[in-house]
Amino acid sequence: MQIASQLEPDFNAALAQALGLPVLAVPRGVPQHLPATVALLVAAPMDADQPPPAGWPFGLEWVQLVTSGTDKHPRWLSQSLPTATARGVAANQIAEYALAAMLYQAKSLADLWVQSPADWQARALGSLAGSTVGVVGLGAIGSALARRLLALDVRVIALRARPLPSPVPGVDIQTDLGALLAACDHVVLAAPATAATRHLLNRDTLARAKPGLHIVNVARGELIDDQALLWALEQGLVAAATLDATDPEPLPPGHPYYTHPRVRLSPHTAAIGRISRLALAHKTAQNHRRWLAGQGLLDRVGAHPDTPAS
């Protein structure tokens, strides 16, 4: 039995050590061929519009995604094989990114540094303590972020579709996005991309924003209407936007975000790091042991039973 992985050598080595099985490195993208001995594919994001290759699913028994959602993979992947997501493995790392982005904005770090004696002017700095942060999506990432913010004496408001109790004590619940935007100094998007969340931030909702709002997107670019955000930046409703996700990725040459003075772009990298990769290797190994034991996969999608193929 072999495992195929589309991730980097360090991850593959950690997974091989955790399972005591060889890990075969394969190219990213829709796999065109896999040896019949490969039972598990660790699948990186790929073109969701590509059809299944000839011979699919080869000898595969199940698939482990490296993403917490399924929108960066073809639907036939999880429809044809039991598939598990990586939900939660990068929650702490992504929460740290969002927290760093808010501290960068609050402390005006872009303009703080001096290059000559003439610049040596002390200035008052802002603070996260005493501010209000909205979290859109209170799953693993949103909850990890909320706990960190509460420790810094930040008021945290989370958007939920229904007024259910918060899984994190101390977090206020809001069911109206406009009301949340009107109350917050920073808003972090941490919700999945679905039909209901597409263009969640649009001209109508952003028109209700508290002037000077800072938006952080660690979710998916589809949650933001780009033209509406550019309008809100121009109107002063939004002071700055920190975007680790865009639609599409990468943005085409000449896109206004690249040169906008109050937009900070990163290449969808908040989740990537040694700690999150080790957590993914641990989760993949745990899922493979569960699969072999006839137990349910953790964070499984699809409709297939979680039992090994006979």
TrEMBL record:
Start and end residues of each D-isomer specific 2-hydroxyacid dehydrogenase NAD-binding domain: 102-270
Keywords attached to this entry: NAD, Oxidoreductase
Keyword Oxidoreductase: yes
SUPFAM superfamilies assigned to the protein according to its UniProt record, in alphabetical order: NAD(P)-binding Rossmann-fold domains
Domain of life where this protein originates: Bacteria
Gene3D superfamilies named among the record's database cross-references: NAD(P)-binding Rossmann-like Domain
A GO MF label: NAD binding
Coiled coil: none
Entry protein name: D-isomer specific 2-hydroxyacid dehydrogenase NAD-binding domain-containing protein
Pfam family, one: 2-Hacid_dh_C
